Structures are given as structure tokens and as C-alpha cells.
Amino acid sequence: MQKFSELPYERPDIAAAVEQYSTYNEAFRKAGSFAEAKAVFLEAEKLDIHLSTIASLVSVRNTMDTTDAFYEAEMAYLNENLPKLIPASKALNEAIVSGPFRADFEREYGRHFIAVLENSLRVQDERIIPELVRESELSVEYSKVAASCKTDFRGETCNFYGLLKHMESCDRAERKEAFEKWAALYESVSDELDALYDKLIEVRLAMAEKLGFKDYTELAYRNMGRLDYTPEHVAKFREQVRTVITPAVSRMREAQAKRLGLDKIKYYDESLVFADGNADPIGGKDYMVNAASEMYGALSPETKEFFDFMTKYELFDLETRPGKHLGGYCTSLPEYKAPFIFSNFNGTSADVDVLTHEAGHAFQCYLGERLIPVSVLQNSTSEICEIHSMSMEFFTYPWMEKFFGDRADEYRYAHLCSALSVIPYMVSVDEFQHVVYANPKMSAKERRAAWREIEKKYMPWRDYDGNAFLENGGFWMQKQHIFLYPFYYIDYALAQICTFSLYDEMKRDRESAWARYLKLCRAGGTMGYFDLLHSVGIPVPFEDGAVEKAVRGVIEEIESAKY
């Protein structure tokens, strides 16, 4: 393999790929034995992996520079043409599920393999190709709008991420000024974002209607691979959060106000944990990557091998710059069995969070692509994948001195507070989407009002200090998942609860906790959600009392800390 920057790209011939899939389908139908059928399936897998790698490469390079006309054009080409593969891919899946070798495939790859294929047949259909193309176009348009936003702050040109650092300043006036600039940036594009979201809702509803779902929510759950639970399960989980975590975070905000010498925490105060400033990394990008190499080298033989691979082939893009897509993510180049980590470093502790959170995703991807022979089983659904990432944040606690020096304890405390306090926001994002798709004709103003009411329900401490745009509900726009990854965000909350269960064991028996974590990573998506959790002894978050049990120790640790 070459370094990421040297990987070649050639536009794929989609028409030829469609023809190749047709050849595989014909060969599969003529197969006289399971061995022959399996061989055809594995050949089709190679083509799947090749095309997925090309799509991933283009997507990464497009997000690295949204102003690059070449990769913008390639994204448009792939978004328009890759859906044309749906009929051929669906035909092969139907042949496996309904053909004479179904039981053989189930014995070979497990019953969950068949369940995944059956679910894909339910949501993949050539009838929705126009809508899939349109959804991709709108997603690219959203990314360009968000990435183009910048403002002047005290002589510095800042995007959203650049302003966040100033919102952690010890100077409250600076925090408030940065906050007002941040809010004004969103307000300046709010009409565009409202219009884009209207169009995304419309196209998603059209897909659900064509596929015979009662609403888009039902289709979204299927798209997310949620085969074990329903919106009703999630609603009960949200209520557990409201009754258990929301009061604890309210107490945490009161304690934070006293620590900062304030009467009440405003929104722009929430990120500042200590009056003399938060613990920031003691080095820049290169220093932190080197420190991460040492950390993963010490954590386990598996993590050492993984991170050495990442650094050897430069599978990172970490620093923010103009035109770069917002946020952070981990993706994969499956043909090379190579994860890739993308971020926007801003000089805060969030940079270290990326090197632990996204590295957790990358670590599981590295293992799954080497241990599991079938691509659809190499990764699980996102509520499991986020356990991989969030748990890695906690497993790396012992090495935080490398990144924060003598302020490592402060970082660990702030990180634990953040892990708990963000959960009510996560469930707010989830409930908002359930409300929106249950009432798709809502106006932009009605959506904002709905968001503000949900915010008050789960985050009663939230105070925007009179900012009209946010007081009227504009804050929902800052979450890109609502636009790009519908119904994803609750998976972070579910995963955090599971992670807290592992964290509780880490403090008692680190080796046992790591063994369970490693088992979960190695299992990939070979089982359903409930079965994966049961296999490693993690309670299912929907169970009565599960949230209270998982967070009890975390709340006690936060409230008994010296801070």
C-alpha cells in the first residue's frame, strides 16, 4: 500500500460494473453446489469492495477540500451513478436469501448474515434511485454551505471550529463575543439551511412512500439496521435520561457556576470547566500523533500494530483549514484494509478526543477487515460502533499525561463531565427528528419552536443570554447529523451508557474490561445488537433501570471530585 496522498484514483466505469454484476448473478443461478455459489458470491464481494474503496477515496478527498472542483465533480458522478448498481446487487441478495443455498450461507456466515441481507432487500430498490441521487446532491450542498462559513474574530478569520476555542477562553467577554459571532454565522445561513432541510425531508418522505413504509422514521430505522428495537424502545430510553441524567447534569451546572464564580451558567460558559482555563494539549498535531503512537504501543499489542499502520501510511487529515468540511469522522478504504481518520484540530482537548474516539472506530475497522471474511459483517450498526470509539476514550485515560502534562487529572474530570452532560443533548436531537418526521409539513418557524421546547425538557439549564436566534430555536442547525445522517445521533447516547458499564469495570479490573472490549471489536457485525451486548456482558440500555445503574458510579465520581 502507498501513503494515502499517493493512492491512485480512476473514475469507475459504472456501466461495466453493472454488466459484471449481471454476469455474477447469472453464474450464481447456474451454480450446482454451495461451493460454486460461494465462489461467485466472493467474486462479487471483491467488486463491491473495489467500488466502495473508490467511493470512500473520493469522499475523503472531497471533504478535505470542498472547493476542489475535480473531486466535487467526481462526487457528483458517483452520487448519480452508483445507485444504478442497486438492481444487480439486490438480485444477488435475493438469490442468496430465496435460493437453494440459503441454509448453507447461514451455516457459513451465521443467521445474522441472512437477516442483514433481508433488511437490505427491504430498503434497496431501483424505484428510489432518483431520490437517492437527489439526497446525495443536497448533502453535498449542505456540506459546502457549512464549510464556506467564516467570520472575522479579533483580526482572525475563523470558521465554526475556530470560534469554539475562543468560547473556552477564561475571559467571559471573549467567550460571549465568540458565541455571538458563532450564532450570527448560523443565522446568516439559516434560510439556506431551512430550505435544504425542507428538501431533504421531502425526498426522504418520497422514498418511504415508494417503498411502502408508513413514514420515513420506519424507513430510517431500517436504513440504520435497527432490527432489534423500535421507536417505542428509544422513547422509553429518552425518558430514563430525562429522569436520571438531566437532574444530575443540572446539579453539575450549579457546581460549575460556583467554580467559575458565576451566578448562573450561560451557554457560552458551558465549555469552560475551570476558572483558570481548560486543560489544553501541550503540543501540536505532530507532537500529539507521536504521543498517540507511544500510547497505543503501550496499550496492547493489537493497538500498537494498528496505530503503526495508520502512521506508516499517513491515514489522517487532522488540521482545520479554509474550505475543509466540518467535523470529524472515521471511514475505511476496504480494498487496502485501511481506516482513515478525519478531523479539524482547534487546539483544545477535543483534538485529543479525536485521537481516542475516532481511533476507536479505526481500531475496530482494522480488526474487522482482517478477521471477518464478509464485508457486510465486518462492522456493526452505529450504536455498537460508537461503543468501540467511546470506550477507547476511557481506556486511554492512563496516558493523558502525555497530552496534558500536570493537568491530566483536570482533563479526565472534564472529559467525564462532558460524557455525561452531552447525553441530554443527544436525546434532544433524537426526539426532534422523531417530531419532524411525524409532522413533515412543519414550517421552519414551527421546527424551531419544537426544538426549543425539547431543549427545555431535557436541558432546563440552557440559557442563551437573550440571543434571539437561539432563544427562538435555531440551535438545532448546528448538528450536521440532522441533515446528513438522520436518526444517527441517539446511537451516541446508547453507546455512552454501554461505555459507562465498561468504565465501571475498568476501574475494578482493567484486564477483564479490555478483554470484553476486544471481543466486541473482533465480533464486528456478526450478531444483532442485543446478541452482541449479551455476548460481552453489557446490559441493554432499554432495560428498566439500565441507565441509572450505568451512570450511578459516574455521577458519584463527578460529585465527589475535588473540583
From TrEMBL:
Cofactor(s) in the UniProt record: Zn(2+)
CDD domains, sorted: M3B_PepF (cd09606)
Span of domain Peptidase M3A/M3B catalytic: 166-269, 312-545
Keywords, alphabetical: Hydrolase, Metal-binding, Metalloprotease, Protease, Zinc
Ranges in a coiled coil: none
Note accompanying the cofactor annotation: Binds 1 zinc ion.
Domain of life per record: Bacteria
SUPFAM superfamilies with a match to the protein in the record: Metalloproteases ('zincins'), catalytic domain
InterPro entries noted in UniProt: Pept_M3A_M3B_dom (IPR001567), Pept_M3B_oligopep-rel (IPR011976)
Pfam families xref list: Peptidase_M3 (PF01432)
Family, per entry: Belongs to the peptidase M3 family.
Protein name: M3 family oligoendopeptidase
Organism per entry: Anaeromassilibacillus senegalensis
